[in-house]
Request: fold
Amino acid sequence: MYQQATAADLPMLCNVWQQQLMCSEKDAKTILEQVAGLENIYLCQEENTILFFVAAIPVTMEQLPGVYLYGLSACSSSAQAEHLAGLLEYAKNQQTMKGKGFAVAAIPSQYQEVWEQQGFVPYFRRRHLSRSIRRN
Reply:
């Protein structure tokens, strides 16, 4: 059910990334192949259908290696939260075995409870600040 992504998965992963994040195919492919790397992308599959995937983008904080987890749903919102929870656990375990000491994440609001059950705590809330800008 949980596995590392392969080159054969790349077209579908790019398509999902492109649709959900509104970027070009080239940008999606660059992020998945060169920024995250297929060796750091994990899938949750059921009956040859990818339900979720998580990109574990390598980061460093004060010389401590870690990952920035970015998860996307590859199917309709009817996908069950337990699949995402299991995939997050799998991805964290795989990255721990690779020597990563911490993980941070962008938590989608529809799955916030699942991420919090996996130990992620929202420290920063995104907010929009409107200010007039004085022209020089």
Summary: The chain is about 35% helix and 25% strand. Residues 81-97 form the longest helix (17 residues). The mean pLDDT is 83.
